[in-house]
Task: structure prediction
Amino acid sequence: VIDANELLRQYAAGERDFRGIEIANANFRGADLQNANLKGAVLPNANFIGANLFGVNLREAKLTGSQIQQANCQEANLIGTDLTNANLSHSELQGGNLRGTNAQQANFTNADLQEVTLCEADLSYANLEGVNLSHANLTRTNLTGAVLRKAVLESANLTVARLTEANLEDCTLTKAFLNNANLRDANLCRTDLSFA
Result:
């Protein structure tokens, strides 16, 4: 059985393969785990605040309730990851792949999600206030009831996205692709839809 301290010790010694590990309430606060392979890891309620997760593979990992604020998650593989109720506020996720991710009720407040892939992800009732989703791919993404106040979705692809009852107040959707997007009962108050 491995704990967080042992994982960090092994990482410092050059190990990168931690597939399928299971650690509840792990503390990786401020840790450097860039390019680590944590595919399928079970890390509920983990603390990754301020961690360097650049290029990390967290595909199909379970990170429910985890604290990932102010973390560097650029170019991370989060395909099919369970981020239910996770907090990723103020994190950098540019170029990350979150295809099919379950991020229901997750907090992404003021996160940088430029050019991320969120195709077929479930972000229902997530807090995306103030996020930057410029050039992001949100094709077939479920954003039902999500809060996107003051979010920037310039040139984002929202084709067939579900935005039912989403709050898009003061949102920027300039040049966004909204082909067949469902905006039923969405709040579009002061939303900028120029050239969309």
Q: What stands out?
A: The chain has a mean pLDDT of 97. Residues 7 and 13 are 10 Å apart (CA to CA). The helical segments are 4-12.
